[in-house]
Amino acid sequence: DGVTEVLAHRGDSLRDKFVEIPCSEDYDGHRRFEGCTPRRCGRGVSDAIITREEAERIRRIAERGLSLGGSDGGASILDLHSGALSLGKHFVNLYRYFGDKIHDIFTEEDFALYRDVRQRIQQRIAQVFGISSSSMYLTKPTFFSRMNSTEAKTTHDEYWHPHVDKVTYGSFDYTSLLYLSDYTQDFGGGRFVFLDADSNKTVEPRAGRVSFFTSGSENLHRVEKVHWGTRFAITISFTCNPEHGIGDPVL
């Protein structure tokens, strides 16, 4: 794996850590949106946007939703926007599949917390990258993930391959991850790794920690395989193109 440098240890409590890196050419192939499309690229980590207590409340939303399904392999997702939920080797639409029972699982407060957290993350990204928060739009997919050491059964379970979000998803300009569990306490492995030419830079998950970065190939990354325990996180991503924007989920 080459030399590995830890960008954020689990035991750190980081107000704001930001590393600027040169932008890749990925953005040149897409429409540019003044005041939003990255001109300054990099990656940041903050433990000061979301509290651990809020992270625990959000994890409970994820646990309740994912308890309705779950992948046969080690990686399960729940997308509150589209309703996509891993079930066995496939996905179902949570809202269609469970209908009115959904009100027994989620509350209006859950969705209000989700919105509030999304807004705070969006504002911090805008602030750090020097762009206007109102020129960024939430985009899909935005989802909870639950990873454990179960062997992968389909390609959807293979979360550990290196990838570039802008290439994989197209609409992404800024990606964020909110961690909902603790590295070495709740799970082993499962660190987030930026793959740079000179060395790897890792982020060790910690409940309430937000990791965010520009989505181009300047931030090629992967997640290590989880060896034991369960890792929860939520991916929340933003686009500069209003045509790719989505609204907050509603119950």
TrEMBL record:
PROSITE patterns: FE2OG_OXY. Residues 140-242 form the Fe2OG dioxygenase domain. GO terms for cellular component: membrane. The keyword Transmembrane helix does not apply. The gene is Ogfod3. Pfam families: 2OG-FeII_Oxy_3 (PF13640). One of its GO terms (molecular function) is iron ion binding. It comes from the Eukaryota. Its cofactor is L-ascorbate. This is OGFD3 protein. Keywords: Dioxygenase, Iron, Metal-binding, Oxidoreductase.
